[in-house]
Amino acid sequence: MRSYISLSGFDTSQILSLIVKYGIEGNDKIILIRPKHETDDRGETTIQAVKNLSRQIDSNIKVEIHRVDHHDFEDMVISFIDLIKNTPCEIITNISGGPREIFLAFTIACLSQSGKINKTTNYSDIDLVMKEITLPNIIHIPDKKLKEILHDINENQPTTITEIANRLNISESTASRQIKKLFERKALDIVQEGKSKKIFVRLAGKILLKS
User: Fewer CB in a 10 Å sphere around the end CB: N or C, the chain?
Assistant: First the structure.
C-alpha cells in the first residue's frame, strides 16, 4: 500500500506525473494538500479532476484532502508532521506546487520526518521536469533528559528554571544546562519578565517533540 502526499495548486499535471513515475493501484491513496478556506473555484475543479482520474484507474484508490489554515504557519507545520507520522504505509511526497506559504510549511515538515518518507519529488521551474530528490536529515533527536524537559516546558509554559527543577525533581543547575542546550538549538524562547525569565517552546522545539 502506498500513499502519495502532494501539494496541490490548480494544475493536475504533477499528480499525473507522480502516478506515471511510480505507478498506482487499488487501495493506494492520494492525499492532496489544500487551503482550509478556498477562495477560487479552480481548487474544487482540481480535486474533482484527481478523483475522476483515480476512478478511471481503479475505483479502490482513495483520494483525501488535507486542509490547513495558511494564516497559522506553526499549526500548518505541526499538522503536516502529524499527517506524515500517522500515515502507516509507504509514503511518496511531492513538495512542489500550491501556495508558497503552504509549500514552506510542508517542506519543513518533510525535512523533520525524512526518515519516515520513502521518496520525495520536486518539479523544477527551471528544467520543467519532475525529479526525485533526497531529503537531508536535519533534526537532531534530543536525548531522554532533554526531551523530558522540553515536554515539561511545553505542558507548563510560560515557566521558569526553578519551576522546571521542582516539577522534575532535578537541581536548578542541571535544568539550566539542559535549557541552555535547547535554547542553542532554537527550541526555546527565554523572555525577561520583571525579575524572572519566562521560558516558552518555539516551533523548532515542537518539531523536536514530534521526532
Answer: N
Q: Enumerate the domain spans of the chain.
A: 2-133, 144-210
Collapsing DSSP to helix, strand or coil, 210 comes out as helix
Q: What is the mean pLDDT of the chain?
A: 92
What is the C-alpha separation between 76 and 116, in angstroms, rounded?
18
CA distance 134 to 120: 7
Residue 201 CA to residue 204 CA, distance in Å, equals 8
How confident is the model over 13-41, as a mean pLDDT? Answer: 90
pLDDT over 80 at 5, yes or no: yes
How far apart are the C-alpha atoms of 144 and 88, rounded to whole Å?
25
Please give the helix or strand (H or E) that residue 14 lies within, else none: helix 13-22
Mean pLDDT of 36-57: 90
Residue bearing the bigger pLDDT, 88 or 3: 3
What's the fold here for domain 2-133? Rossmann fold (3.40.50)
Q: What confidence score (pLDDT) does residue 189 get?
A: 94
Name the class of domain 144-210: mainly alpha
Can 2-133 and 144-210 be said to share one CATH topology? Answer: no
